Amino acid sequence: MFVLPSATDQGNIHWSREETMVLIEIYRQHPCLWNVKVDMYRDRDKRAAALRQITEDMNRSGTTVTTSDVKRKIESLRTQHRRELRKMQK
């Protein structure tokens, strides 16, 4: 069972490590969101549907989030990943 993310003043939520790991596992199941080589990557409707599905899966797992929360967290994780890759290249 996960603890509900806590809201902050800006409407952002705090994600626990466990919630983030669950999100990453669910995200991996939707290559249309991350694999630029699949045709569905360019299909906005499929990407939006995948984000809605991730939100539903997260909510079923006991974490209350919105689609915009999920999208914001994914963008944050991708940014962190790119930053770490740049550090390794130096």
From TrEMBL:
MADF domain sequence ranges: 22-90
Comp. bias intervals (Basic residues): 79-90
Highest rank taxon of the organism: Eukaryota
Regions of compositional bias (Basic and acidic residues) in chain numbering: 69-78
Segments of this protein annotated with the region Disordered: 59-90
Annotated Pfam families: MADF_DNA_bdg (PF10545)
PANTHER family registered for this protein in UniProt: MADF DOMAIN-CONTAINING PROTEIN-RELATED (PTHR21505)
Protein name: Putative Alcohol dehydrogenase transcription factor Myb/SANT-like-containing protein 13
Species annotation: Homarus americanus (American lobster)
